[in-house]
Amino acid sequence: MGFPSVYPSGTTFYEPEQCWNGYTIFQAYRVGATLIDMNGSVVKQFKNFHGMPNKVLPGGFFMGNSGRRDAKFGYQDHKDLIQVDWDGNIVWKFNKYELIEDPGQERTWMARQHHDFQREGNPVGYYAPGMEPFVDKGNTLILSHKNLTNPKISDKPLLDDTIIEVTWNGEVIWEWVCSDHFSEMGFSEEAKNTLARHPNMHKEIGEGMGDWMHMNSMSALGPNKWYDIGDGRFHPDNIIWCGRQTNITAITDKNTGKIVWQVGPEFTVTRALRKLGQIIGQHHAHMIPKGLPGEGNILVFDNGGWAGYGAPNPGSITGFNNALRDFSRVLEFDPVTLEVVWKYTPIEAGFEELADNYKFYSGYISSAQRLPNGNTMITEGANGRIFEVTPEHEITWEYISPYFENNMSSNLVYRAYRVPYEWIPQLERPEEKSVRRLDSSQFRVPGNKEKEPCNVSVFEGGDEYGQGVQLCVIPTEDD
């Protein structure tokens, strides 16, 4: 494997006075909704209660899903979106988006929810001052799926994305279908040709389905300064979403359904886009809510990896997944000028440019949350790593998920959220104990003994990098 087979897990570093302290919720891989304190202790876990993502609401309520559709018939389709109380009792459920009858399966209603949902009262699903999500009323925005064909995109069956709004009583009162707005998205002719041939086909689903957009986040903009000064594109009810496969991040007008703001799929057509740089396979694009540092800016985990449709190139001989980059970026940028306000890249992480870029890299899943103290909590999901950084890029807290598959191949975390202690009244505020940073050069697995120091000679002049070359002389019996 390309990474160490043994490394620390749990909370590996923690400076309480430098953090915005609270509980962190995430879906432990193959386990279920997991709530931890800052020292990594599990304070609540619901096994087999999964979520894309799991969320916590004030009062100790949890949201997630109760089951996934058989992968032979649907891709990442979840049956029921539910809310449970602290004791696991279901207090709200939605599934009546589509009545499904899969071969050999019982006929059943499904929400077909995937990747995101938002409860009224809060636009983004994480803590923002004065904007608490409702727990006993209100509508819910849900990102869902729908099977269809659209010859303007491809002659192949499509797994399309939809956004729906449902009432507390489960009535669908609004629906937006992504493929209806294909002509608004600005694809080049080369991209359209590639997309028609290969709309991100999943051949294992029935006779094949094209997950052409693959939306992975969706949230309301909420109150913001741009709308306050008269820019109608940023109406609080409008919805920002991102499509991982197309490299598009866009805002949909809730009233008309039209796309009123967009970056991607092309990043070379204007000077501002070229300066922003190619965004690839991004996740969790959202507007930072009012009341938090950076309010009104767009925050996104720019994964890198592989995505896009376009002209063939040496990395993509077909033009499918034609944009490639082997490192990630977290970007905060002004949605009007597209100027980057803050970023976290391998450079800010302290790695050597180009040579070590891959050391901050999650080619799929992942997220970023702005915290009230100005820090940012980042989920580097493919590696099961969640960490908090200051505006100056100093890490103040780090957690590595200990929840691996049986063969230790993956401990991925789709998305994590930090919530205030007050949202969990069932628990006393935990003690916050600092965890000092390990000196990896001195750390040894217990039971391993250091060999006796060997004789070392240093050649003068150094090697090609200007460093002295050390020669370890191992004593022999003749010596």
Architecture overview:
Helices cover 4% and strands 37% of the residues. The protein is built from three helices and 33 strands. The protein has one domain (10-454): Methylamine Dehydrogenase, Chain H, CATH 2.130.10. The chain has helices spanning 189-197, 225-228, 271-276; strands spanning 10-14, 23-28, 32-36, 42-47, 50-57, 61-65, 81-84, 90-94, 98-100, 108-110, 113-119, 140-150, 154-166, 172-177, 201-202, 209-210, 215-220, 239-243, 248-252, 259-263, 283-287, 298-302, 305-309, 320-325, 329-333, 340-344, 367-370, 376-380, 385-389, 395-400, 417-419, 455-459, 469-473. Strand 3 and strand 4 (42-47) form a beta hairpin. Strands 1-30-29-28-27 form a five-stranded antiparallel beta sheet, with no helix packed on it. Strands 4-3-2-31 form a four-stranded antiparallel beta sheet, with no helix packed on it. It starts with 9 loop residues before the first strand and ends in a 6-residue tail after the last strand. It has 479 residues and is mainly beta.
